[in-house]
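ARCHIVE CARD
Drawer: 12
Card no.: 0347
Subject: one protein chain, sequence and derived structure
Cross-reference: see card 0346
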Amino acid sequence: MTEAKEAILLVGGKGTRLRPLTVHTPKPMVPAAGVPFLTHQLARARAAGVEHIVLATSYLAEVFEPYFGDGSSLGLSIEYVTEDEPLGTGGAIRNVASRLASGPDEPVIVFNGDILTGLDIRALVAAHATSGADVSLHLTRVEDPRAFGLVPTDATGRVTAFLEKPQTPEEIVTDQINAGAYVFRRSVIDTIPAGRPVSVERETFPGLLASGAHLQGMVDSTYWLDLGTPQAFVRGSADLVLGRAPSPAVPGRCGDRLVLPTASVAVDAKLTGGTVVGEGARIGEGARISGSTVLDGAVVEPGAVVTDSLVGAGARIGSRSVLTGAVIGDGAQIGADNELREGIRVWCGAVLPDASVRFSSDQ
């Protein structure tokens, strides 16, 4: 069988690194290109032939089902399993096993809920079937692998080791990293210990390798981005709008901007670089917004300049304020004539008075 009908999506993380985006919203539900990020993953899985998806939820679990329901609007059957205590990646996979209908030798796809990728899912499943592997892993190549676990393979693509984040140049034996998508032989999932936290990366995979199991790696170096930081999330959203990252779920044509139907944008405002303007948001005269996300109900007042930033739902950016690489929490109020630079995060509901924060060029 060369097509996987079932998938598990791991969406239980707290998204701590993404705060304040994730204070009120779990990471997979933060909008990217106009829809919750999870929508893109579900749509891509459906396009690859998946019919049944189990969402492994934990943090703010109650928001998923009201939005996606039974999945029929996406052509899917979706079930939800909530962890009472966080179980880690392996524990979460094992925790939903009872909901799977696949036979022991059939393939089940597992996706991490925070990866935006152009992976050819069908090709990964086909490679799994051809190699006869117990588990197949999507691998991608990165220029600097020090922040990732390395996965070297032999000439046939068979995984030879799992190496934790390398600290020295000698430890960097490959540029291949675990890219967060797997195909499991269904029976292998039942070998993961139940009822306790398990890391698939640090426990399950090395354990399988040590026991002589066949783990296969498939390098696919199309688009790949870990959306773990606010800056990465903003970039991922822009890349979806620009068409650099493929998704059947972008609500509109790819291009320089995506303005959702009830938003209002002044005629002379300039939106570029994959900017998204959410429902009910208002963009004032002469505002310039590039590579940014303005969420539902937010207001960008006249003359403001917003670059590579995220403006939370219901937030307000005052006239002539300049934001670069900033993240503004839901409902925050930024007064006029402020200047907020790289990496600054303003908490939900915070208020900055007019001209209270400025960065001069000689600092």
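Annotation on reverse: The longest strand covers residues 176-185. The helical segments are 37-47, 64-68, 88-95, 121-131, 186-189, 200-210, 230-242.
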